[in-house]
Amino acid sequence: MNTFNWKRIVIKVGSALIAPKNQGCSSHFLLGIAQFIVKCRAKGIEIVLVSSGSVAAGRHLFSGDTENIAIKKAMAAAGQTEMMATWDRLFDFPSAQILLTHGDLRDRERYVSIRETIFSLLENGIIPIINENDTVTTDNLRVGDNDNLAAMVAGAADADSLIICSDIDGLYDKNPHTHDDAKLLSWVSVIDEDIYKMAGGTTSATGTGGMRTKIEAAEKAVSHGIDTFIVNGFTELTFNMLLEGKNPGTHFQPHETPMKEHEHWMKHTSKEQGVVVVGDDVDITSLDGDEALTSDEIIEIKGSFSVGDTVLVRKGDGTRLAKARSNYSSCLLTFIAEQTDQDFANEFQRQTGPIISDKNIALLEKQ
């Protein structure tokens, strides 16, 4: 047991496992997962559970147009209590519900609060059960799928491992449902475009995520140094193998030098509220003390953002350079960038502080 030397695991369970027939919750596929969680806790491994299923669990309570957005929110509200009750019945220890939106995660103060809540629950032997708050979320505030939500939670929780439960054994080199010669990739050391090309759409009529969202989640997690697995959540063999320290699916190798927590949040969780376009000769990687960008290097400001918001820094040709926290609003930044008297602009910045600090920037590797 614990050959992987994990101390904290985030497990993502999808709607197809919770409510496989859209007729309320079923414990049929959850027993093996629950037993795995119990055995992990007995060995001192902390567990955070990211569980989809509220909409699927509540669907059978409604008639008519169940694709209506307002009805879906109502289904989530009704199904969430049933989903939590189902998990609670499977455990002999307390659980806690945390409902999140992307708005909660991308706000740094609220993100830190979420971290503190998760840590406090774990310290007191309570398993956090996390889901997107579908009842109140809007398009602007949605994560959209619980695969990526689980990766964000894994980063926030300082997890050692992320286990994403799927309806197939892992990532195949081609769609196993349509190709008999499809081969399972047991190990992925680098997530690149070739890996993404292997990911098709969702194979489940119940869930909202597909293999691509799982790859996206894996990319987020491994950059934070988190062991990541895509496994078949429908079979107990999966969890027996994990308990034995064996890989039952696809194992994504974590980066040897993980991103720092704040930098990881900036790159993978925070959402840019605007764009700062800089000249082609600007080298954003050459930071000088607190000053990472000056007004004379800015060509254009796009979007509306406030002080403290995350912005995307890119070149005029679209090359993405970095995500960073802006110390200026878009209105003020536009004002100083448009000054023809550069001495005035430089003096203004000297008195008010840097546009972007090297302490609040995450360089984007994919440019």
TrEMBL record:
<dbReference type="GO" id="GO:0003723">
    <property type="term" value="F:RNA binding"/>
</dbReference>
<feature type="domain" description="Aspartate/glutamate/uridylate kinase">
    <location>
        <begin position="7"/>
        <end position="232"/>
    </location>
</feature>
<dbReference type="InterPro" id="IPR005715">
    <property type="entry name" value="Glu_5kinase/COase_Synthase"/>
</dbReference>
<feature type="binding site">
    <location>
        <position position="52"/>
    </location>
    <ligand>
        <name>substrate</name>
    </ligand>
</feature>
<dbReference type="GO" id="GO:0055129">
    <property type="term" value="P:L-proline biosynthetic process"/>
</dbReference>
<keyword id="KW-0641">Proline biosynthesis</keyword>
<comment type="similarity">
    <text>Belongs to the glutamate 5-kinase family.</text>
</comment>
<dbReference type="InterPro" id="IPR001048">
    <property type="entry name" value="Asp/Glu/Uridylate_kinase"/>
</dbReference>
<dbReference type="GO" id="GO:0004349">
    <property type="term" value="F:glutamate 5-kinase activity"/>
</dbReference>
<keyword id="KW-0418">Kinase</keyword>
<dbReference type="InterPro" id="IPR011529">
    <property type="entry name" value="Glu_5kinase"/>
</dbReference>
<feature type="binding site">
    <location>
        <position position="134"/>
    </location>
    <ligand>
        <name>substrate</name>
    </ligand>
</feature>
<dbReference type="Pfam" id="PF00696">
    <property type="entry name" value="AA_kinase"/>
</dbReference>
<keyword id="KW-0547">Nucleotide-binding</keyword>
<keyword id="KW-0963">Cytoplasm</keyword>
<feature type="binding site">
    <location>
        <position position="12"/>
    </location>
    <ligand>
        <name>ATP</name>
    </ligand>
</feature>
<keyword id="KW-0028">Amino-acid biosynthesis</keyword>
<dbReference type="InterPro" id="IPR036393">
    <property type="entry name" value="AceGlu_kinase-like_sf"/>
</dbReference>
<protein>
    <recommendedName>
        <fullName>Glutamate 5-kinase</fullName>
        <ecNumber>2.7.2.11</ecNumber>
    </recommendedName>
</protein>
<dbReference type="InterPro" id="IPR041739">
    <property type="entry name" value="G5K_ProB"/>
</dbReference>
<dbReference type="InterPro" id="IPR001057">
    <property type="entry name" value="Glu/AcGlu_kinase"/>
</dbReference>
<keyword id="KW-0808">Transferase</keyword>
<feature type="binding site">
    <location>
        <begin position="166"/>
        <end position="167"/>
    </location>
    <ligand>
        <name>ATP</name>
    </ligand>
</feature>
<dbReference type="InterPro" id="IPR019797">
    <property type="entry name" value="Glutamate_5-kinase_CS"/>
</dbReference>
<dbReference type="InterPro" id="IPR036974">
    <property type="entry name" value="PUA_sf"/>
</dbReference>
<dbReference type="GO" id="GO:0005829">
    <property type="term" value="C:cytosol"/>
</dbReference>
<comment type="function">
    <text>Catalyzes the transfer of a phosphate group to glutamate to form L-glutamate 5-phosphate.</text>
</comment>
<dbReference type="InterPro" id="IPR015947">
    <property type="entry name" value="PUA-like_sf"/>
</dbReference>
<dbReference type="GO" id="GO:0005524">
    <property type="term" value="F:ATP binding"/>
</dbReference>
<comment type="pathway">
    <text>Amino-acid biosynthesis; L-proline biosynthesis; L-glutamate 5-semialdehyde from L-glutamate: step 1/2.</text>
</comment>
<feature type="binding site">
    <location>
        <begin position="208"/>
        <end position="214"/>
    </location>
    <ligand>
        <name>ATP</name>
    </ligand>
</feature>
<feature type="binding site">
    <location>
        <position position="146"/>
    </location>
    <ligand>
        <name>substrate</name>
    </ligand>
</feature>
<keyword id="KW-0067">ATP-binding</keyword>
